[in-house]
Amino acid sequence: MVCAERPSTPGNSSNGSLRQLEELEVGQESLNNSLLALTSHFAQVQFRLRQIIQSESSDRDALLQGLEKFAFTGCQDLPSYEDVHESICSTFERRLAEQKAKHEELIFQLKFQLKDLEHYAKQSSEIKTNEQIRRHKLVLEQIRSYLKIDISDLYRLPTDELQDKVEEAVQDMLAPIRSKEQMLLQLTTQACQLS
Predict the structure, then answer these.
(1) pLDDT tens, 55-65?
(2) R_g of the chain, CA atoms, integer Å
(3) Higher-confidence residue: 57 or 14?
């Protein structure tokens, strides 16, 4: 009666229905075993009856007495309810332990995979971040060379001053281009007037 004596666990609201299910399973197993024993006993009675029918008349009396003795002794091989119950409970507990071991193994594997995934994500983000920083430095270096601006002190400036400084550098870079465009426009206009 190992199963029936198991204490109820807090979190298991269906403990009563579980116990009732176990009892039904025990009852079903007991009935199945009894049916098997009775079927076997009945088959033996049928076999002995055939022997009696096919035997010589001198042997029939001894065979009939053996059949009568066998028929009234009953089924000896029926297991007791306690044996069946204990067998089912031990099977249930073994399966429960196996399931628990499988669940623990699965949890371990999932934790391991999660750590791998976190490690991969961290490496990926570091690689992406390092790649982005490298590209940003490359772009800033190109801009600095075009604008001819000293960027060493730009990182310390407030945002407004930084925008003003970059705007001024862009205007300084574009000023010669604009003046050349204006000169070209004036020359084109003068050439058109002369012709």
Answers:
(1) 888 888 888 88
(2) 48
(3) 57
